[in-house]
Amino acid sequence: MASEKGGGGLEEGLVFGYAIGVKTSCNSSTRRPAMQLEVKTILNRIQHFVGFVYQDVRLHGGHIGQPWLTITLQAHKGIRGRCSECRRPAPGYDRLAQRHWLFVPLWGMPTWFLYAPRRVECLDHGVVVEHIPWSEGKRPVTLAMMGFLARWARRLSWRETARAFQTSWEAVYRSVEWFVKWGLAHRQLEAVHSVGIDEIHWGQGKRADQFLTVIYQIDRHCRRLLWVGRRRTQATLRGGLKELGPQVIGGLRYICSDMWQPYLKVMAQKAGHALHILDRFHIVQHLNHAVDEVRRAESTRLRGKPLADRLKKMRWKLLRRGSRVRGQARLKLWGLLESKLATGRAWDLKECFEYFWHYKSIYWAGGFLDYWTERAMRSRLEPMKRVARMLRKHEELLFNWFKAKGEVSSGAVEGLNNKIRVVTRRSYGFRTYQAMELALYHNLGRLPEPESTHRFC
Ligand SMILES: [Zn+2]
């Protein structure tokens, strides 16, 4: 596309300078003649590196195939290079061969920085390569390009990002890695009062490796992913708490989690001062699982009989909150209830438990819980009885929900879980666990970003 621009007259390596200029309009009313804007001017404005000058900008190729740009940099004559170890100015030693770094594509053309680095003789570190402000380590990609790719990798999948900007998946991965590491090292972990702890299933199969433990901050002022680790054992959670540090743990007031025993144990040991709450969303989930189990068993039992029709296509209607089911679906649910089928009774029990959350006093909520568990125990529905036993066992944690009322939002953990699913399901082409972990921090960690003089996207 861009190759059309120069017509047939584009020679390889045509000096860019004034050839393709953009007219600046700001000075049009003054006496000065219309100026042509140089690429170098833009570069100096958005990315000026002290001690270096942009020497020239060249366009290559163009007749056949993709054109590309090179931007050559030079060291400023009067300014000494800096030692890459200590960043202090040091006398020059010699000059190495020219290297190149991938820069943000201009007009959709791959763009490279070219520069022959000097070696300097530092008093403390001996002869070392100078510090190069647009690059980090030995990576052949500029920091500007890494930031550019990392930001796009939040909006597109990594593969799409690589394709859109004509680079490799590896380059996107390295960019996100750099971005996230910088963010984790610079994030502030103050005022973390409420956390949610949960397990997330990832990938295929039910092996221990397919689960993640996540720690969220679920304060009203800030909801984010604080930590993610592989597996869902006590050791996993201990590792996570250790990484967050004693200051964060000491400042906790509320902890939300499921009834998963390893988590309950570790949190009681490590953060006994905080109020541990069973998450409403998880309890609803347990009830839904139980209802579904009853439905599956019953439809197997009734196979071939006329009553079986009542259970057809009912799964999602049964699992939604009853008050949100409307119209035809609602009528079907009422029909099921009247039929006295086990599934109908299980659904009724589940719906009835909704009242529990509306109590204001723990005393009356306790009375309700007694009533409900008794009803469930007499229901002859084993999955429902199991939930009742579980709730009884964790009664104290369940009542903590009323003590923390208004302080902890019951939807926060669920909301963040859903966001995690979006990230893990969107085809990012994660080949490894590490890549997925990076993507989760990148999308949900609300990490600070490396400072740069210009945002390219
Ligand atoms: Zn040094």
Q: Tell me the total number of β-strands.
A: 15
Structural class: alpha+beta
User: What percent of the residues sit in helical stretches (DSSP H or I)?
Assistant: 40-55%
Task: State the shape.
Answer: elongated
Q: Report on the biggest sheet.
A: 5 strands, mixed
Q: Hey, roughly how much beta strand do the residues contain?
A: 15-25%
Q: How confident is the prediction overall: mean pLDDT?
A: 84
Radius of gyration: 31 Å
Q: Are there runs of 5+ residues with pLDDT below 50, and where? A: 1-29
Question: Which hetero compounds are present in the coordinates?
Answer: zinc ion
Structure annotation, total helices: 16
> Oligomer, anyone?
single chain
Alpha carbon gap, first and last residue: 22 Å
Read across the widest sheet, the strand sequence of neighbours is 1-4-5-8-7
What does this structure look like?
41% of the residues lie in helices and 18% in strands. It has 457 residues and is α+β, with helices and mostly antiparallel strands. Strands 1-4-5-8-7 form a 5-stranded mixed β-sheet. A hairpin with a 7-residue loop joins β4 (52-60) and β5. α2 (143-155) packs across α3 (158-164), α3 packs across α4 (169-186) and α12 (362-377) runs antiparallel to α13. Residues 1-29 have low confidence and may be disordered. Bound molecules: zinc ion.
